[in-house]
Amino acid sequence: MTIDAATRMAYVDGELDAIARRRVERAMADDPALAEAVARDRALREALDARFAPYAEAPVPDRLAALLDTKVTPIGAAPRRSRPVPPGRRRWMQGAAIAATLVLGIAIGREAGTVGPVATRDGALVAQGRLASALDTQLASTQPNDAPIRIGLTFRSTNGAICRTFDGHQLQGIACHADGRWNLVRTAVGERSGAYRQASSDSLARAAETMMAGTPFSAAAEIAARDKGWR
Amino acid sequence: MRFEEQLLELVPRLRRFAMSLSRNEADGDDLCQMAIERALKSRNKWQPGTRLDSWAMTVMRNIWIDEVRARKRRAETFVAAEAGDGIGDTGDRRVEATVELGQVDRALATLPDEQREVIALVLIEGFAYKEAADILDIPMGTLSSRLVRGREALMQALGEAA
Q: In this structure, are residues A163 and A177 in contact, taking their beta carbons and an 8 Å threshold?
């Protein structure tokens, strides 16, 4: 009896029941060419496995683990906003809350003699120095084009805090205001140019979108928020 | 166990799937990141009690298909020979097999996307036909015939390279 290619492969893939399996095995005993074809099918599976198994065995890269980091303290201190959530947004609010807790690994080059842009307070990463003052005072609508740190979007996050995206030479990220300081909820190492930078900008923009309640602040809303101390 | 923790456990497999769909590691990790982000965002579309791995793979596969289509629309052309270059986990395992691994990549790169995805799910991820057909939302017969054609094409490509 002849065994077609689909049946032979189903045999190799463990998809046949006991009776069909025995039928293939009997046919293999009579037909060396079939036995050889089965061996080739198995060798292909093994070659593919050898090629890709290392990924399944390797430690998860930090960049991916950070997306699912459940150990980082959420920035839950900010008051919940009271206006109702539009139904379309409700669906991904949980995801947004998680996104807000993300802290990607930071590798900050410290220039000799200057204070870095980041410090830790109570286990959270917070902005300091020039980054903190840019976040406190700089307006996207009036900042010079060549500002060392540029502010992107300002928005209210789904957990009520005001957050701003920023872009410095060394560091890009999203900072959210709570208890008088700017917590860094998401960062990427800034590079001056190239595809990597574009990729991290896109990824930050997506993260901001996920965190956002409503739409980004207008220029007027941004001024008003600054005048009220980013509360 | 929390959703994030369950998903985190799946990341190595998701990453392997991403690598087998993508043309290089950088694209694979980007795909993996997008899939994790989308899975977190649409987590309540997953029905607890059903398989999270199949669901997460579906999320990833749909993103990949969107990317592939977008790329085709941009009419970017790829040089086949380039596909396998610079790829390969050179880790400590099987360093001697580098040449062979490059061949597998080149052979995979010759497959049409619809064959590549069935090969990835069944032969690399080890999904049963039924599960793979569900993930791809295609009938079993279609899955089976793509598997046969994909395998034959791979064998031929590897045979030529040997």
A: yes
